[in-house]
Task: structure prediction
Amino acid sequence: MPAIEVENLSKTYRTYKKAPGILGAFKGLIHREYEEVHAASRVNFSVEEGELVGFLGPNGAGKTTTLKMLAGLLHPTGGRARVLGYVPWERHDEYRRQFSLLLGQKNQLWWDLPARESLDLNARIYGISAEQAGRTVDELTELLDVRDKLNVMVRELSLGERMKMELIAALLHRPKVLFLDEPTIGLDVSSQKKVREFLREYNRANRTTVLLTSHYMADIQELCERVVIIDHGTIFFDGRLEEIIDRFADFKLVTIDREEPENPIELDSLGEVVEQSPTRVRLKVKRDRVVPVCKELFDRMPVKDIDIEEVPIEDIIRELFDRKSVPERPRV
Ligand SMILES: Nc1ncnc2c1ncn2[C@@H]1O[C@H](COP(=O)(O)OP(=O)(O)O)[C@@H](O)[C@H]1O
Ligand SMILES: [Mg+2]
Result:
C-alpha cells in the first residue's frame, strides 16, 4: 500500500466579491456574489513509503492547499486521499501521531520561550516521554548544528536557526510521513545546504516518506528523484526529474571554441546568441536544429572544440511555469 494516495482531490475556495463603496456593502447584504477559486482540481498521485518527492509549481498553483488537505487542516470539496491508510481530515488521533506538516512561512514554536522549552512543550503535547524527546533533541540538534542554540529564545534565533528548530519540533514524534512546505524559504545559503543535507540523510536513515515543496531548484535537484508538478490546481507532470528535460526542453546549448580569435559574425539566424567573443561562441539552438546548426558553424569558422549541453533544468522549469501561467481565459 502506498504511504500517500490521492485521487481526484479537489478544493474550491469561495470568496465573496465585494462591490466597492457603502452601496456595495448594502448590496452585499442582500445578495452575495461569490467567486470560486479552484485551488486543487482532480489531483492524482501516490507516494510509496520512504520516497522523497518534490512537489513543484508556480505561486498559487495549489501546493499548500494540497498539503493542508493531506495534513487534515482543510476539508476537500471533492475526491479522496489516504495517508498511511487514514483519511486525513477525519483527524484520527493515531494519524496525528504519525505525520508532520512544516510550513516554512509560519512559526509553530513559541516565540517567547527558549528553543529547548518550546521543544519540551511540543513533546508533551504529543505525549512523548522526556527521555525520548531528550534523545531526539540531542541527536537532531547535533546533526543540524544548533546544539548551542537550545537556550536562546526562539524570537532571538536567526531565521536559519529557527527553521532548524521548527524541523526538530516536526520530527520529535518520529513521524512516518513528513509534509514540508518551503522549509528553506529565505534561509541563507549555508543553512539551506545544511537543512538539505539533513533531510537527505534523515530520509535515508529513517525511510520517512517526504513530500517537499521548494522554490529552490537546488533543493529539488539534490533531494528528489521524482517530482510532481502542479499548476492551476492540476497535475501536469509526474515523473523522474531528468524526464523533464526530455519532455519539455526545447533547446540545447552549443558552445564553439574558435581555432583563432576572430571578429564577431552574424549568427542570429542560427539561434539565440548567448555569448560571442573573439574565441568563443555560445548559442541556444532548437533541439531538432542542433545537427544542421553545428554543420553550418563548422562551415563558417575554424573550430577548435565543440560542446553540446542541455539547458539547466532550473531554466526549463522556469520557462515551463512562465508558459503555463499565462491566463487561460482572456481578461475582460
Ligand atoms: N483561504 C483561501 N481563500 C481563498 N482562496 C485561497 C485561499 N487559500 C489559497 N487560495 C487560493 O488558492 C490558490 C492556491 O493557493 P496555494 O495552495 O496557497 O498555492 P501555492 O502553495 O502553490 O502557492 C491560489 O489562487 C490562492 O489565491
Ligand atoms: Mg504555498
